Amino acid sequence: MTVEAAAAGTADTAPGTPVLEVDGLSAFYGHVRALFDVSFTVAPGASVALVGANGAGKSTVARVVTGLVPAGGGTVRIDGADVTGHPPWDIARRGVTHVTEGRSVFSSLTVEENLVLTFRAELGAAAVPAALERVFGTFPRLGERRGQSAGTLSGGEQRMLALARALGAPQRLLVVDELSFGLAPVIVEQVYAALDDVRADGCALLLIEQHVDRALRAADHVVVLRKGAVVAAGTPAELSASLDELVLGPGPAEAG
Amino acid sequence: MTELLSYAIPGIPFGCVFALMAIGLVLTYTTSGVFNLAFGAQAFVSGLAFVSLIADGWPRWAAAVLAIVVLGPAVGLALDRLLFRRVRTASPVVKLVPSLGLLIALPQLALIIAGSVPTIAPPALFLNAQHVYLHVDGVPVSGLELSIMLATAVVVAALLLLARLTPFGLRMRAVVESPRLVELSGINASRVGATAWVISSCFAGLAGVLLAPLYSQIDPQNYTVLLVWGIAAAVIARFESVPLALIGSLALGVGQQVLAGYLPPGVIASGLRPSLPFLVLLVFLPFGRRNRIEDPLAGCDPPPSTLVEDARRYRPASTLAVDGGRATQVVGVWHRALRAGSSESLAARALRRPTSVVAWTLAGLAVLSALTWVSADWLLTMTQGLAFGTVFVSLTLLTGMSGQISLCQAAFAGVGGFAAGQLATQMGWPVLVAGVAGGAAAALLGVIVALPTLRLAGLPLALATLAFALLADNVLFPVSWLGDGASGVRIPRPSVGPVRFTASRPFFLLALVLLAVSAGVVKRIGDGTTGRYLAAMRGSETAASSVGIDVHRLRIGVFAISAGIAGVGGALYGSLQGSLVPNDFNYQVSLVLLVVAAIVGLGSIGGAVVAGLVYTALQRAVATLPSRYAGLVAVLFGLATLSYTRHPEGIVDFLGGRFTELWGRLLAATRQAPRAGGAGVPGPGAEPEPAHGTVRP
Predict the structure, then answer these.
(1) A163 in a domain, yes or no?
(2) What is the pTM of this model?
(3) Which residue in B16, B462, B540, B592 has a CA-CA distance of 20 to 30 Å to A67?
């Protein structure tokens, strides 16, 4: 079930080397197998959407890529380097940021502390003030609340804060899980606008989105997951017509 | 006012030492999820090293640096690497047992290494201990008290500044909330955790060194008491707040001294002070996790296994599947049947039959030997083993089957034994009837323990039962109508009509019968509907009550039955020995019982019986060694926790499983099917089960 979903992107350093290459990936939660032989690639600067129904394994793919869940088989490569089995902090230092689903900030720390924590680790202490300035320029709202503890922010602001971590340091790949979940439509558009900025800096995107139509507009490649396996991949234009069936499986008529 | 101060001021140094212990506990618990009871032992090791070095003529500062800054963290780091790192996401029992084992083993190991306890009076960390440096409202403050207060104030202030003002403190606070989210920021969270572990080990070491001069001699007992007070303070701090831990500790330290000062001397005063931690625990534990922020990435962890079941059921099928042939099919059926949640299939029974045949044959041979050729003192050891086996069976029911951690099982056994002895000697009841009545008394006590702890589970329940064991030691056992203090209680051997059990072989048979009855009761419970209820409760009390199981009634019932069986075991042991003293079943025995039960096997009745025999046999074997090695049993069990973290199902079930596996391989080799090539080889090695047609019948 290997489907190539290589996207034409702007390869900057090593032409031809995808920023993310997932090959034959499987994963388990305890004794439950969540992924079956998942393979796809993300070219530098590309935007790939993972779509699928609830429980299809989208979040698991993201978690295995960033090392949160161990791979049960297969490999994950970042910029050509095999990082399978590496701890999340090592993968993060290779320029991969994971905005996890739900709350993805430290509630008990202030907005500024949340950002300083990441920037200091990825950029070094000297570069922190500049990175903070830059982020607060992009998200003035966060700047207004820099001393406030992150747990008291609204859902949209917490999302912004999570994205701001990626904006402060130049990234190779940004993995965003359930981007629009629980957010007001206006906020969703703001967050997508922020993603465009991230991408403009040359960062590739791996988007996980239940709101499929919105994801298709933001992505230039789509990978469809069903029951833990890749069932289709291609450009949004190629797939949009048959997408419902791909996501949900054959309808009652065909299944007969 | 002066009187109050004269009681309160000596309490402050105690409060300070409790605070160091409590802060160490909170720090490791929040950063690594392990509630490290071994801190009590680490404190003792540092205290012992400090005093021993000074006795050897070292200068105070050098001894302090070595004991607190070198030895404390070294021991802590070693424990973290060898043990605790492996159990971070495990179930509460698996997390607790290694730290309990070390709490028992480390002081004994240190004493064996040190050879003897230094006889000098332990000195203060700095200042002249006896010299009075100042007066507060006429109450003198000695150098000892001043040194403890100053040292505590300095390190606690340093810790708070570190946490608030430094980059490392920021990382530490972030790890407390979510280690995984920290890792996603490019920070090695386990390194942060290890550093926090080192810092808290220093706290434990400092507590150990500071505590030493508060007593005339250095004694492991005082350090367990210190640990219990530290636990009470950590509970007041809701396991998370360092400032609250400090305030709570000071309140406890001052409170216990003031209480002791104002109460009239007697059982109430001498009993109330040691039971203060228990009362504090009962009052504060229900407020445990009120404001706790959940880790947003908790869902990434696999669900913690339910202690025994999973470890036993999900042994890697791949090792068997490669053999191909019939055994593979059998095992395949076995695994699938078990995974489907049904009870064991016929195929599984067929595969496990030889294991149980061998086990029963060994048991039969042992009984036969005991009745014929075994020497008198080894027969005594075996009978003791059966009595303790009965107590272990009660743990199988309570902890193994129901998932309720009990650290007061010896208290139940003691109460059963003492009640039986009192009824038999004072009231003239027949001993067997008195023994059953002792069991009933213990069962009643079980209900009394269960009622206030109904809403506790896991670690809080373990701590509450530990506190109860201490309460029993200090309040129940010394009273004249029960344990009667150090003199103990006489329990005669029983006789029924013409049959007298005074000789050792008839008594062995009696013990065997009582063990068999207890085991039968537990097995009936486990195999029946109640067993399913208990399994459900062990998995999740919320889920169990949502399908209509009355969890509270079930818990009260299981505590009562378990305590009753333990009580009968205690009476049996007392009757065998002829008398029972409180130290036979003090809180340390409770700790050892749980550790031994967990290591040998909590999951099966066979495990409990073996645990009883191993426990007494080892003690007898070590009794022949020079007195310096008296603690060797404790050390052995402590070291066995190393294997426990790998095989939480226990040694007995592990070996049984290995034997079954071997037999399966043998079967495969002899009945190599002609179409053996058709039997697949499992795919990636990491696969825990043949998920996709790797095994086809």
Answers:
(1) no
(2) 0.81
(3) B540
How many domains in chain A?
Answer: 1
Spatial separation of the C-alpha atoms in residues A191 and A197, rounded to whole Å: 10
ipTM: 0.86
CA dist list (Å): B305 to B189, B302, B533, B539, B648: 24, 8, 18, 9, 10
Question: Considering only CB atoms, which chain B residues are within 8 Å of A66?
Answer: 184
How far apart are the C-alpha atoms of A93 and A79, rounded to whole Å? 12
With respect to residue B637, please indicate whether it lies within any of the assigned structural domains: no
Name the CA dihedral angle for B166, B170, B176, B178, rounded to a multiple of 10 degrees: -150
> Does some domain include residue A7?
no
Chain A residue with CA closest to B183: the answer is A89
Helix axis angle, B504-527 relative to B529-539, nearest 10°? 70
Length of chain B: 697
CA distances from B307 to A195, B591, B599 (A): 45, 18, 12
Give the pLDDT confidence of B459-494 residue by residue, as tens digits.
Answer: 888 888 988 888 888 888 887 777 777 778 888 888
Q: Give the count of domains, chain B.
A: 2
Q: Which residues contact A175 (CB under 8 A, 6 or more apart)?
A: A62, A65, A66, A96, A97, A98, A99, A206, A208
Mutation for A interface: B185, B188, B295, B314, most A CBs within 10 A: B185
Task: Please tell me the distance from the alpha carbon of residue A230 to that of residue A237, in angstroms, as a whole number.
Answer: 18
Q: Does some domain include residue A255? A: no
Residue written as token pair 């600067």:
A45
Token reading at B649: 């199902």
CATH number at residue B507: 1.10.3470
Last residue of a domain, one of B233, B257, B279: B233
Boundary (domain end) residue, out of B603, B624, B645: B624
**B257 in any annotated domain:** no
Q: Is residue B559 part of a domain?
A: yes
Cα–Cα distance, B474 to B464 (Å, whole number): 15
Q: Residue B180's closest CA among A68, A165, A106, A102? A: A68
The half-sphere exposure of A200 on its side-chain side, counting CA atoms within 13 A, is 7
Residues near A94 by beta carbon (within 8 Å), at least 6 away in sequence = A78, A79, A81, A83, A172
Q: Is position B492 within any domain?
A: yes
| Domain range for B27 | 18-233
Give the CB-side neighbour count of residue B66, counting CA atoms within 13 A: 13
Please, what is the average pLDDT of chain B? Answer: 81
Distance in Å, alpha carbon of B645 to nearest chain A alpha carbon: 18
Please tell me the predicted confidence (pLDDT) of residue B218: 83
Per the domain annotation, does A147 fall within a domain?
Answer: no
Q: List C-alpha distances in Å: B40 to A207, B25, B81, B166.
A: 50, 10, 19, 29
Chain B residues closer than 8 Å to A87 by CB: 183, 188, 190
Mean pLDDT, all residues of chain A: 83
Using a CB-CB cut-off of 8 Å, the residues of chain A touching B303 are 29-30
- Residue that wins the pLDDT comparison between A198 and B331: A198
Tens digits of residue pLDDT in B179-232:
888 988 889 988 888 888 899 999 999 999 999 888 888 888 888 888 989 999
CATH of the domain at A198: 3.40.50.300
Structural domain of A35: 20-103+172-248
- Give Cβ neighbours of residue B359 (< 8 Å, ≥ 6 apart): B606, B656
Between CA A62 and CA A35 the distance in angstroms is: 11
- Number of alpha carbons in the 13 Å side-chain half-sphere of residue A80: 6
**Amino acid letter for position B134:** L
Q: Could you say which of B173, B178, B302 has the minimum Cβ distance to residue A29?
A: B302
What was the pLDDT predicted at A81?
Answer: 92
Q: Which residue of B has its CA nearest to A122?
A: B186
Torsion over CA of B463, B469, B474 and B480, rounded to 10 degrees? 160
Q: Hey, of A64, A68, A115, A149, which one would you mutate to test binding to chain B, going by the most B CBs within 10 A of its CB?
A: A68
Task: Tally the residues of chain A.
Answer: 256
